[in-house]
Structure formats: structure tokens, C-alpha cells
Amino acid sequence: MYGSVPLIVRLLASSVSVANRAGKIVRDVMSKGELGIVEKGKDDYQTEADRSAQRCIVASLAAQYPNLKIIGEEDSLEDEGEVVSDWLVNEIDKEILKLQCPPNLQEVKEEDIVVWVDPLDGTSEYTQGALMLKRDPWERWKMYLTHPFISMKWYLSLLQNNYGFLEHVTVLIGIAVNETPVAGVIHQPYYKNIVEGDKKIGRTIWGLHGVGVGGFTPAPPPESIVITTTRSHSNPVVEEALKVMNASKVLRVGGAGYKVLQLLEGNASIYVFASPGCKKWDTCAPEAILSAAGGKLTDILGNFYKYGANVTKPNKTGVLAAVNNELHSYALERIPEKLQETLANK
Ligand SMILES: Nc1ncnc2c1ncn2[C@@H]1O[C@H](COP(=O)(O)O)[C@@H](OP(=O)(O)O)[C@H]1O
Ligand SMILES: [Mg+2]
Ligand SMILES: [Mg+2]
Ligand SMILES: [Mg+2]
């Protein structure tokens, strides 16, 4: 029906609609309260929301774009569990369809594309948010006891945080063409906003190379250096890379998507994560949007990652990102060579 619209624009428009639906699934699982937490590895968990949102995204995109290569964080699920027909999205965002495709992306074919899907980025924050939604203290305590990875210190910090961590949760769909992220979607299922006088939950941020970004109001970086980094996957090497930045503040938040949003909205200057913990699905969509806004996301050696179908999944040499080249260079110059070698040789 929209065959005259270049593929990359159609795919981005579909991804916006699909991410909105996946966000609703994420909220519905939370409302039901049965999170179905599975431990995939150390500090690495999956919930029913991760599984269902992934099925929704992959099945919806594969049905409309059969020759796309789609790689999702929860891929080991393949063929298990059913895709509820209500999850199959064939809507397509009409506003995105109106975008003028840049000349260099007009001829892109499905075979040139790899879509990287993180159905739920910030799973730690999601599960901790669930805990905090239990208003009854006894219920909350019982749930805490079934969360093996939440220490008492965290539990107390969560209580003081006014249940705020759910905003860190995002749905990420990144579109790479010939190994480079050129378009992407970050959907925030728990973002609270007022649209035309009505309270609305959720928002969707998008970016396309050569066109720009939308779904939020970009803001310049803070006056002094503010670093954003992990709040749930730190270690001594990660901390060492923060120390050298001479930052006025360190913003510890969940998810790669939410951290890049902190850069785009002017709350932080640089995202530093000197750890091999992030994977290609964590950074593809954020990198596409950040670079469409004039920013840069690389490893901590300053090299770009490649996002082809056969690359290794982990971002072995960490993440270094900023809203502009100056801030990126500022950070890169400060990372000690020894630290770069530590990650490169791991
Ligand atoms: N040490 C580690 N082990 C497993 N996953 C890690 C990790 N460090 C980072 N990640 C993944 O990278 C993403 C961002 O992490 P963080 O919030 O700590 O910055 C999260 O994605 P998911 O929540 O999609 O799994 C998280 O799981
Ligand atoms: Mg995960
Ligand atoms: Mg993730
Ligand atoms: Mg995830």
C-alpha cells in the first residue's frame, strides 16, 4: 500500500508502531504482577515482558518484511510460545511515512538490513519497579525475598526513590544498513506526559540519518561535565573510567536506551561504560538516534562498532558516547591507555 515510500522509511514507521505495542505488553505484564523471572547468567535476567515483547516485535516485522535479518536479545526463545494474534502489528506510523528519505538511503533493500531488537532494556530496573509497585509492605517484603539479586542496600534505596526506576525501561529497535546503524526507535513505556491536556503514558523517540530525530525536545549538554553510567552492572574497571572524567556529577541510571536519552535531553554530557556487558541490541538504536542528532557512540577506544548479521554480540570494548564530537574527544583523551588495553585483551 505504501510501496512508493522508500523501504527504510516504511521500516522505521512500522518500528514506531510495533515498539508502541511492545511497550503496552511490557505494562500489561507488570499490571498482572506475574513477572516470570528467569536467570540467564550472572546479573542477567529475563522476564515474561522481555519474552512477549520480543515475540511481538519479531513476528510483526518478519510478517511485513520477510527478507529482513532480525536479531533479538531473547532469540533463544525461537519457536517456543505462541504469538497472540493481538500482538501482530500491521499499523504503520503515518507521520514517519511523510519523512523525506535522504538520497543515499533510497535504494536500500531488505537484504542490506539487520534489525537489532532489545525488547526490554533495563530489565533490572523493571523487576525492581515491580517490587516497588506492591504498596502493601507485607506483599512487597514477600516479593523482595523472591528477588535473589536485590541486596538490602538496594531495597532501601528503592524505597527512597519513589518508585522512579520504571522510567529507565525502554524498548529498542535499531536498523543497521551495511553494518552501520542508520535509523532507530527508543520507546519509553512508563514515560508520563501531558498531550493536549490529557495525561498520557509512554513516548516514542526516533531518528533517521540525514533527516534528524523526533518524539522529544533535544536540549544542549549541561554546562559542566555530567557522566551517565550503569546503576546495576558496575565493577572496579567501570569506576576507574568514571574517575578520570573530572565530572561534576555521575548519573547512575538503567539501560543503554535511557542513558542515551539523558544525553539527548541535556541531562548528561557523556555516557561511559568500560565493560563488555552491553550487546549490539543495546547500542544499535541508541547509536542511530544519537548520530542522527549529531552525536557519537563508539567503544572506549574510539572505534565504531559494526552491526552486520555475523558480528559478535557483546560490545567487548565498552561504550563511550556524547552528544557532540568535542565532548566525545574530551572523554576519549581521558581514558587511560592501560584501561583500554584491559578491555581489548579480555
Ligand atoms: N555485566 C553485565 N552482564 C549482563 N548484561 C549486562 C552487563 N552489563 C550491562 N549489561 C546489559 O546492558 C544493558 C544496559 O545495562 P545497564 O543498565 O547496567 O547500563 C542491559 O540490557 P538489558 O536490561 O536489556 O538486559 C544489561 O543487561
Ligand atoms: Mg537482558
Ligand atoms: Mg538492553
Ligand atoms: Mg533487554
Q: Kindly report the oligomeric state of this protein.
A: single chain
Give the % helix. 25-40%
User: What's the arrangement of strands in the largest beta sheet?
Assistant: 3-4-5-6-7-8
The largest sheet, given as strand count, sense and whether it forms a barrel, is: 6 strands, mixed
Q: Give the structural class.
A: alpha+beta
Number of DSSP strand runs: 13
* Cα radius of gyration in angstroms: 19 Å
Mean pLDDT, rounded to whole units?
A: 92
Q: Which architecture of the largest domain would the CATH scheme give at its second level?
A: 2-Layer Sandwich
Ligands (ions, cofactors included): adenosine-3'-5'-diphosphate, magnesium ion
The number of helices is 11
Name the CATH superfamily classification of the largest domain: Fructose-1,6-Bisphosphatase, subunit A, domain 1
| Uncertain stretches | none
| Approximate shape | globular
Number of domains: 2
Q: What is the CATH C-level name of the largest domain?
A: Alpha Beta
